[in-house]
Amino acid sequence: MGAMKPDQPFNKKVEFKLRSMEFSFYRGTTTTSPIIYVATADFSFSLNRNTFFQVKLPYQAVNGNFGSTNGLSDISLSITRTLKSTDKYDINATIGGKIPSNNADLSDPTRNNIDFPMYYQTSLGTYDAIAGISLKTRDWLFATGIQHPFNENKNTFKWEEWPQPDIYPDSLYVRTYGQSNRLKRGTDMMLRVERNFRFAQYNFSLGALPIYRITKDEIEDPDTGLRKKLDGTTGMALSIIGTFGYSLNVRSGVRVLMGFKVTDRKTNPDGLTRNMVSTVSYYYRF
């Protein structure tokens, strides 16, 4: 969101409109079976010439071996302020947060309403604070940010509840998903480095997105009922991101984004790991 978004416009010769709306469709493949689809409406409004308010409203659907889920996903809100703007660069800062659309406790009615793993949840189930800053030029974007969740969610996915004799999924497959009983995610820090190539009507970019989890995820131990921190949940997840954009006119355009996982954390109970993502977007400035 905000200052940390990929493929941001930069053209000092054309005065960009201060309001915009963007509609995107996202598809993500995971390290297990779920395929995740998200349709998002993204709106930005100018509070004044240097300050913008952004709201993102996503709707998510998941299909995998455990079943299917769908519903409103977490709502993102942010304010971005231009700290300095020259003919050669902009420095922008963002503060914001994510509001959960549910408690991350969607369950399977065919299995006595036991909770799905986090990969199948349409919400992370937490209130998160997000802040970041970026330096943007015609050719480069450097951005860094932090995301901190404040609470544990209500998910109760446990390995022992799912395996049943002669019924798929079996116990070995179930254990490929991290247990997330009352999960509290750790804090993430990110760095985006992006090289942009801009032409009259189109542009493309290539960048790296390392996200480092600096504190361990924590769950309620299904055996003892005590809180415990999970080994293997800290460390870096690195992705390579490429975009291609085409301007239909000075107000609107389309964009395609592709992302590929390079490295990941050993343990991922939050269900956020993606092998590959693709997004198609249409934007309009007014």
Protein architecture, described:
It is a single chain. The two termini are 19 Å apart. The protein has 286 residues and is mostly beta strands. The mean pLDDT is 94. A twelve-stranded antiparallel barrel has the order 1-2-3-5-6-9-10-11-12-15-16-17. Strand 15 (235-247) and strand 16 form a beta hairpin. It has one helix and 17 strands. The radius of gyration is 20 Å and the shape is elongated. Helices cover 1% and strands 54% of the residues.
Give keywords.
286 residues, elongated, single chain, 17 strands, two-stranded antiparallel sheet, mainly beta, 12-stranded antiparallel beta barrel
Provide a brief overview of the structure.
With 286 residues, this protein is an all-beta fold. Helix content is 1%, strand content 54%.
General shape: elongated
The gyration radius over C-alpha positions equals 20 Å
Please give the largest β-sheet: 12 strands, antiparallel, barrel
Q: Tally the helices: what do you get?
A: 1
- Report strand %: over 45%
> Approximately how much helix is present in the residues?
under 10%
Total beta strands: 17
| Main sheet strand line-up | 1-2-3-5-6-9-10-11-12-15-16-17
- Runs in which pLDDT lies below 50 for 5 or more consecutive residues are none
Structural class call reads mainly beta
Q: Separation of termini?
A: 19 Å
Topology of helices and strands:
Blueprint: E1 20-29, E2 35-48, E3 51-64, E4 67-72, E5 75-85, E6 89-99, E7 107-108, E8 114-115, E9 128-137, E10 140-149, H1 171-174, E11 188-198, E12 202-213, E13 218-220, E14 227-229, E15 235-247, E16 252-263, E17 276-285
Antiparallel strand pairs: 1-2, 1-17, 2-3, 3-4, 3-5, 5-6, 6-9, 7-8, 9-10, 10-11, 11-12, 12-15, 13-14, 15-16, 16-17
